[in-house]
Specification:
The chain is α/β, with parallel strands linked by helices and about 325 residues long. The chain has eleven helices and eight strands. Strands 2-1-3-4 form a four-stranded parallel β-sheet, with helices on one face. Strand 5, helix 7 and strand 6 form a beta-alpha-beta unit. The longest helix is centred in the middle third of the chain and has 27 residues. It binds zinc ion (ZN). The site of zinc ion has 5 residues, from loops. Zinc ion (ZN) binds next to loops.
């Protein structure tokens, strides 16, 4: 069996950190040169990634004055901030970020932006430890994909609502009612997943890919296997990991193997070729394509797709 992989993942946290510091230097120069404050045209909210953006868009009731830093089409895990990002953070009233590995760079920027109300959404939920396939990882790190559980998304929404109300009390009523409406939709989504899983013939997910669905799987009592642990930056899974996926699919008669968005599908194609399993996408809502973003996809619309994806695999 010949496998070809190209996840094109490179860059270390240390590299990102030094880059961020460089960007800060650029930012200070730019800020001094620009001098003037941008006008008071409502609350300026900045979100690092799509889940944060989605929450802000819903609670604000629109996208005006809302900036998404990790742009559509980019892999959140390898994203590197631009000087424009630093400027946006510096000028923001409210900054929403997850506080995981993918947006760790924002904390460096915040050191020089003391007036920004920064909300680390990881603090709104019970974080789960990252699972490592390899041994030798002594330090505990937490899985950043907290939003994959709609229950967590509701808790995150509460934090966003509170931050917006505190920063802009005049419009608090609007934020409260927007958030309440969205919360009801998230509660409905949660119930849909519960009903789906409770009536399912299977409870095992096989991801021939990275696995950002730890919070989702734990929430709904699903077991899982994956080619990579978490959103590992490793370029290739071990041959052993792929072989054990193939064994599991064959032994358990698993009809569907999952990939995540922006996947190369190399592992999945190899597993599908060996087993005849169907490849289906589960969208983690972390990295959207430009088309998805332009089409106005939301967390709810993508998760509703996941309901159908899950039905294919579990029934
Ligand atoms: Zn991820």
């Amino acid at each position: 069996m010949k496998l070809k992989f190209d996840f094109s993942l490179e860059g270390t946290n240390a590299m990102r950190r030094s880059l961020s510091l460089l960007l800060l230097a650029c930012l200070l120069l730019t800020a001094c040169a620009a001098g003037a404050e941008s006008g008071e045209e409502g609350l300026r909210v900045v979100a690092t990634d799509f889940p944060c953006y989605d929450l802000a868009r819903q609670a604000l009731g629109g996208e005006e004055n809302l900036t998404l830093l990790i742009r559509p089409g980019m892999d959140a895990h390898t994203y590197e901030p631009t000087p424009a990002d630093a400027k946006a953070v510096y000028e923001a009233d409210v900054l929403l970020y997850i506080g995981g590995a993918s947006d760790a760079w924002v904390e460096d920027m915040l050191l020089d932006a003391p007036d920004v109300a920064a909300v680390r959404l990881m603090d709104s939920v019970q974080p789960l430890e990252e699972e490592h396939a390899e041994h030798g990882h002594e330090d505990v790190s937490y899985d950043e994909h907290i939003w994959t559980s709609p229950v967590n998304m509701r808790a995150m929404l509460k934090s966003v609502e509170e931050a917006l109300c505190a920063a802009d009390p005049q419009n608090a009523d609007t934020y409260h009612s927007n958030a309440a409406a969205y919360d009801a939709q998230l509660a409905g989504l949660d119930q849909t997943f519960r009903d789906l899983v409770s009536g399912a013939a299977r409870t095992e997910l096989v991801f021939a890919d990275r696995f950002p669905f730890l919070y989702f799987a734990r929430e709904y009592g699903l077991s899982y296997r994956s080619a990579f642990s978490g959103c590992s930056e490793e370029a290739q899974p071990s041959v052993q990991a792929v072989a054990s996926l193939i064994d599991a699919v064959e032994q358990d008669g698993v009809p569907v193997i999952y990939v995540i968005e922006l996947s190369t599908r190399d592992v999945a194609n190899a597993v599908a070729e060996q087993t005849g399993a169907e490849i289906v996408e589960m969208h983690s809502c972390q990295s959207l394509t430009g088309e998805e973003f332009e089409a106005g996809e939301t967390y709810l619309s993508l998760m509703t797709r996941n309901v159908e994806a899950l039905r294919k695999g579990l029934y």
